[in-house]
Design brief:
The protein is built from 18 helices and ten strands. With 531 residues, it is of the alpha/beta class.
Amino acid sequence: MPAEVTPDAEGRRRRFLWLTILVAVWSLELLAVQQFTSLPSDASHVSDILRVAGRRWVLDILACTFLVCTLNRLWLYCLFGVGVAFSNVLIVYAGYFESPLSWYVIRHQWHEGLAVADYGVALLQWPVVIALLVAAGIKIALRERLRRHQEAGPKLHRTGWAAAAAYLAVAIGLAGVSKPISQIRSGSPEYIYGYVIAWVSEGIFYDDTRMLRMAVDAAEQRSDRLSAWESPLDLGDRVAVVQVESLDWDVIDARVDDQWVMPFLRDLKTRSICYMIRPFHETGTSDADFCLLTGLMPNGKIAPFRIEGFPYHDTLPHLASQRGYTCVAMHGNTGNFFFRRPAYQQMGFSQICFSEELREMGCPMQNGEVEDDVLLRLSAEWLKAAKRPTLHFIITLTSHGPFHRLRPEQRALFPNPSGKVEAYLNCMRYVDRALASYLEALPEGTVLVLYGDHESKVRGYGETPHRGERVPWLMHCKGRNLAEQQRTRGMPWTQSGELRMLDTVTYLHRSLKEYEVAQRKPHPAGSGPVR
């Protein structure tokens, strides 16, 4: 006859069942989030994906077992809620930057993250949010079933601490001995071992010295595909470089009903040197202006201006100053955003104007920021009044996501936008008009360099498939048709996105190095360039 099952044995069996189901549900949820937010592009073999995922799942099972067995149920429910929020942060970040969120980004860029939290909310994928909330509800229900059997048999704490010891042993064995994190060359630590082990390792090993060395190594990479084709551009003695927020390549040729979204830029392309480029956008907007100003590749790990001790040699302002230019930086945001102010001060700008300085000058503010048309109008006035060669570097702001900075009277295409697409197209029409007025106000002979800092991540407009992270790079001289001197015009690789931003930036820096203006005589305010 089979042995009689005692109440204690039955309680232990049921407790083990509900514990196993809860741990399985939670660990699979974590595995799915890890997989979708840290999958590297080079993980193409199914066997490799399954092997790495299996390694992470074992770690997830041990971690979940420890937490379920040792935490008070109310603390555990709080952890479930935090998990829903943080999983969404990981998913939004990975979707936007196409890379996993790292510890050094959290450590160095949490200020910027909070500043653009409204944009993060706009990027939420609501089916994912609902799925995570449902999963949290299931876990709470399972934990309640487990509680009914918790008094039968020994306490769960011993199981939890045993799982913790196993987790540490496996983590140290894998990340410290079998495949050390310091030797990972493909994928990312987050992909190989999950976020906790990767973040702990980054916190231990990536100090300021190592980050500086990594940034210097990245800056040694060069790319110059245009020198063999294009002659240096005569920059004259008035130069305006404008970094336009969220300017897609595709939006310039987009239409709403029968009108172009950006008629001015669409026409300007036909009279300018024009390239489709892939911008740098691994850690944020500052990747683009770092590349433009230094002529170097950003590190791709954290906002480049956060790297303490980086050597800012031969920057665009330094080169321009050596050739007789007065160099001015202008941005409607604060100087603390992405830590730009300290870096710009090292680059050789004659004058730096962030929102703090612009407020003191009496510029009208909108929610603590200076709108693009105000900023560009001020730049045009200064360039007209300049009595010596002058270079302006300008970063626009009004078209930053979630694209709600426009006042009602500035919404030209959709007075009452419904959704992100209409709000974005309104912003682009506003920017187009602001740039048209800006060029009209500039002196004859002014060279205007204009490019997008990164794509908008907005889909669903235009008549052609979206090209992703591709932005325009235009170089125009007021009063001249530079398209006629672009030797690469019509070559497919200049309009395909094969060019990196570093290619066009290198061309701009080379033009500045090879074109002397230091010997020019000062000219009257408002006159054209002296030839």
